[in-house]
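Attaching the record inline, Q. Sequence:
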Amino acid sequence: MPVDIGTLDTFPKLLAHHSQVRGTLAAIREKDLGVWQTWSWGRFADEVRALACGLAAHGLDHGAHLAIVGDNRPRLYAAMCAAQCLGAVPVPLYQDAIATEIAFPIQDAEIGFAMAEDQEQVDKLLEILPQCPSLKRIYFDDPRGLRNYPQEALTSYEKLQDAGRAFDAANPGFFDGIVARGVGSDAAAMFFTSGTTGNPKGVVLTHTALIDRAHAAAQMEGLSDSDVVLAYLPPAWIGQNIFSYAQPFVTGYCICCPESAETVMADMREIGPTYYFAPPRVLEALLTTVSIRMEDAGTFKRKMYLYFMEVAKRVGARILDGQSVDAGDRLLYRLGDILVYGPLRNVLGMSRVRVAYTAGEAIGPDLFVFYRSIGINLKQLYGSTETSVFVCIQPNGQVKSDTVGPAVPGVELKFTPQRELLIRSPGLFREYYKNPQATADAKDAEGWFHTGDAGYFDPDGHLKIIDRVKDVGALTDGTLFAPKYIENKLKFFPYIKEAVAFGDARDRACVFINFDMEAVGNWAERNNLPYAGYVDLASRDEVYQLVGDCIAKVNLDLSQDPELANSQIHRFLILHKELDADDGELTRTRKVRRGYIGERYQSLVEALYAGRQSVHVEAQVRYEDGRTGSISADLKIRDAKTFPVAAAKRAA
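Structure, as predicted:
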């Protein structure tokens, strides 16, 4: 069970507690060169002490900011806690952001110190030094490639520790004293929003906010120091940070850092996490991989898989929820567990998962049901950076595919007449850094946070989110138009990776499509369709037919909803390139920047609504190394199959 937080109101105090109570137990593991390396809570505390004293010797003090740039690594998490020991504020930044994207938060937060993972991150920081005069010191973890860097601002992790140990020896009461002076109301971390509609905002969260919400959710799920978590998502995302930093400090459980993005699946199978978190895009990618493997399997295996998946779809979720199921179906499900579900959970690395969450975007009901039907206790939660994540969680036995559950204890919810959700919670952020107007706009005098999300309560008091308030619009006939709702329905199909829907203030809905290259490439090979790459496939009539079939299924579903029947998709095109965060089309959390895409590809939007059958496009793209190039293509536009309401009912 989680610790009794009581006077342990800061993360450094919690670390000291774990060091004393479970000093020899594993706190964090990292896979390096194929071998798992383990830090105990005692070693974690020693590392933090040396780093904190080193940072103090170099001038980091209360209220200052330390940027953290890199993947999930023990040393970077130790640096976060070291900054907190001094009353400074760690600011995790996205490791895949290009240099110019990192410059804004460093300038905005006047960051003077940065801890970088490796040469790649150091190079980005050095590139923006002329635009970031506040940045005086850069520390690095991995020294490979950095031996001959002459910059005085650079210091290795080891040298920082050496300086810290010398400082600690010369000032024996300093560290314990400064940790004791920390209080829960101090700023614990700053997370920058994704900047979907403008410049990112620095969200300042206190120790109390993060610890309180991490503790409430841990109590609800019965988490303890025996749990194991895989830390594989960006640490700059509050979702990963809460699961790999706040909750481990509250419960004492161990987190595991994979060797690389490419080894995540294999590493997950090795460690067997008991507590798991994945946004829908990750779950979609996993299911796409499974679907591709089954399509390539032999006839017998494929038929067995399809048969038992029908059994799972019928009774799997009910068995997981402890509901009554007749003996015949229960026996079939047990057989399916031996032959299909168990091996499938093992392939996914989820054999030991006791609790799994998904959040960040709405998840398609079929995708959600798939995981629950094979025995994975996947649940939806709702929250945001400003709320320290945990606002709503689906309790065991009360899991629904179309809601995010009731409020977590301590949270209050209500709606405005415009359907906007308001939240009051101990986990609310303190402020947007240096942005009092935005803070006042988001958090009113009574402490209610205005989420910008539109939704309602179902009859059981579970929250249902339909879209962003600003994105919910209407067609010219008054039909409700919820673009994200439509996009998420499309993205459930393994062949569709991204979708961008348009229709507000127009007479009909139309979409841009990005197909999933792996899934469609595999489909093309099985159908003996030669291709040269994404652009080539995007021009093929066969691929348009494949995507059109997916859209028709979504339209059939929409046509059965009285409020959304007229927002069926009428026309679509397949984009000539994959949407990319480096081109500004997606945020770093992979959210579609619909407004930007609509402006950038305005000629394509106009062609959809003008009834044209094709359109020429030229666009500039940015490569990973910072170079730019251009792409030109002639895109086809196709009509989608739609359904009158009455016809839809007969077809269903």
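The first helix runs from residue 11 to 21. Residues 468 and 489 are 16 Å apart (CA to CA).

More tomorrow.
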